[in-house]
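Suppose you are handed a protein chain with no further information: no name, no annotation, nothing but its sequence. What can you learn? This example shows the usual starting point.
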Amino acid sequence: MMKMLSTSRAVALLFALSALGASAQIVIGQSADLSGPVAASVKETIMGSQLVIDQVNAQGGINGEQIEVIRLDDGLDAKRSLENTRILIEDKKVLALLLNRGTPNTLAVIPLLDKHGVALVGPSTGAMALHKPLQKNIFNVRSTYQREAEKAVQHLHTTGIQRIAVVQADDSFGKDAMEGASKGFEKAGLAPAVLALADRSKPDYSAIVPQLVKANAQAVLWIGSGTAVTEGVKALRAAGSAAQIITLSNNAASGFIKELGSASAGVIVTQVLPYERSFGHPLIKEAMALAKAKGQTELSPALLEGFVATKVMVEALRRAGPKPTRARLIATLNSLQYDLGGNIDVSYSPTDHTGIDYVDLSIVSEGRFKR
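A reasonable first move is to predict its three-dimensional structure. Written in structure tokens, the prediction is:
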């Protein structure tokens, strides 16, 4: 398990980072869940992001300018995300946004991004709605949930599993991922054994779990976030089901494994970046060196997502030149071609903000992710 900061130290770090504003010359904003159902994952993502920022600032910044990230807690509530983003753009005058978390949350702030001409780099969501139609101010880094869900169903089918149930969060994220899952079912010539809708933040497990047990599901694709999934898996195991569980990369965090506890063994989580223990991979090698310098002994998929998205932001800032404006940063991003290491490429154009098309699978075993 990754050596993580204690909760109190992690929160103290977040506030300390916000206090740097007096000396920072490049100010970036982020609205994300620091206290709610996916807070554990978000804080790992922030750790990865901060590895890059701390290194850049220690080397003198970008064109002599230090970077600060102002982070506001939205508790994964879309209305709070909208207000946080308004504050960051209109009051704090941030140059750009980075790693905002959640599908409904990100969709909610698009009108503000478009109104003010502000880029959002690496939103921590794989929503297809952020790819098609093109959102002119959103620059995706990670792959889509649809690709993940489709591959998840295909994987289960190739292992001989026929009765695949789906638990789908009843929100824009869940509906989006389900489109990909439906493509996987169609290609496999199957239909879901059960399709159970779940409230995003407060699923009714007493209604969901009996449906899965009654269908004698061999596997469950659980489309949800954080505790909504971990508590559901525990309830399913308590009901006596040994069904294989597969969930998406929004849950690819050490905090997710910790919350699962003894129910974690054998859970499959899709991945959107190279395996974090592939130490020969240039990207992993770079992240590991920076993490070790801060006393962190392991990486996690969530940490890597923050690390990679921030590398993209930093590279765009470098190429935008001294005293970048919002418009100049967007223009730079629209022509960015960048090898992150090990042939992991990001390439944008005015008509394509896709990012990295990469999907793989990991099994949770002995408290960590394994390929």
